Amino acid sequence: MRKFIYAALGMILIGIIGVAMILLSTDLLDFEKTDAQKKTADSQDLSEIQVDAGSLDVTVEKTTGRTLTAEIQGWGNGQMTRRTKLEMQRHGQALHILADQNPQFFAFSFGWKKLVVKVPAQLYQSITVHSGSGDVSVQSLRANDLSVTTNSGDITAENNQAPGSFTAKASSGDIVLKQTRALDQVSVTTRSGDIDLTGFVAGHSYVNASSGDITVRNFSGDLSARADAGDLVLKSERLSGNLSAEASSGDVIIGFNQDPDSLTLDYRGRSGEGIVMTKGLLYKEKSEDLIIGRKGNGKYHIKVRTNSGDFVLR
């Protein structure tokens, strides 16, 4: 028995020595900053920017001057830092920025990296930003059409302007938008995650969460919102457009700091209760699950549908 124990201990010791030799003879424990990878381009006559970050986190933000820069930032062991590639391709007025990590099936790597793109302050025809499995952040950009997408990650956008349309789409992740302006439309969708929008102006906004809560504050323009499995909360200073709100499994709460002077309300629910605190409505129908009313000349329409949840207008 004692010989067996000694033999087992010997095998463990040999294994530890072998692993230590591998670590010391490779770059697995060689911590370093990401290899300096930086590309630049002149923004003169540039109208289209496309950013593909692969599996990296990516930040795209405004900068001063006329030079656009793209840089890989981060740290890690050698296996991590040397796997990342950055490319920049220009075709006329269009610029394509690509960054990704080369797969290594038998490599042990750790650390973090992200792509940082700094864009000169001017109005572009289009800016498209995509990450396959990373977080995306865009700040203070101006483009006629602005699109931000990620397959698996969160999206954060702040102080962006799009005279045409603004699109934010995540397959699995939260979306947070602050101070967004789009003269045409805003489209925000996520399959699994919460949506939080604050301070945006758009001709028409479409907001959809398949599994998650939706919260919208201080908005202007027409708004259509749907939460398949989550609560839907819409709050603003005043009513300034038509609203359509639908929740399959969750509550719908709509509130304004200033009571609307003119609106038409159409609420229908299957399992839940409708409560209206706004004063001055004349009701055509009013029951627990059906409310149809009008105030003033009915300028703006509020349409609400719930399957399993309550509705409150205040």
TrEMBL record:
Q: Where are the transmembrane segments?
A: 6-29
Q: Which UniProt keywords apply?
A: Membrane, Transmembrane, Transmembrane helix
The yes or no answer to whether the keyword Heme is present is no
Q: Which InterPro entries match?
A: Toastrack_DUF4097 (IPR025164)
Q: Note whether Membrane occurs among the keywords.
A: yes
Spell out the Pfam families in the cross-references: DUF4097
Residue limits of the DUF4097 domain? 47-312
The name this protein carries in UniProt is DUF4097 family beta strand repeat-containing protein
